[in-house]
Specification:
Layout: H1 4-19, H2 24-33, H3 36-49, H4 58-69, H5 72-83, H6 85-93, H7 103-115
């Protein structure tokens, strides 16, 4: 069950990957400690709002790739989160772009769903 610290860590991971103000090592540690659904949603949110077709997205996507390709534990969490019914529910009922500028609301929604 997610705790307050997990909510904070999830927001910090998302914003750190987006803004580049989180080291790769810290991002890995945080991702390894998060619920798999949160890892999946964070990665997919960043991919959705920073499409590869946008040259300005390159640094964000490079950080996401570095996180998800070089760390087996993070890859495993991502894959587990992908299969989770909460992830499927979210992607069926919501679009990542609706949370642009509302990243904390995205994390809250997911954590609330995990807790129920």
């Amino acid at each position: 069950m997610p705790q307050i610290d997990e909510r904070t860590s999830a927001v910090r991971l998302l914003t750190g990957l987006e803004n580049g103000n989180l080291s790769a090592a810290d991002a890995t540690i945080m991702a390894e400690d998060l619920d798999p659904v949160l890892v999946y949603v964070i990665v997919n949110f960043l991919r959705a709002i920073h499409p590869a077709s946008d040259p300005a997205a390159t640094p964000v996507l490079e950080r996401v790739v570095r996180l998800t390709s070089g760390h087996p534990a993070v890859v495993s969490k991502y894959q587990e989160g992908e299969q989770d019914p909460i992830s499927r529910w979210f992607e069926g009922d919501h679009e990542y772009r609706e949370f642009l500028g509302r990243e904390s609301d995205l994390i809250e929604l997911i954590v609330d769903k995990i807790e129920t």
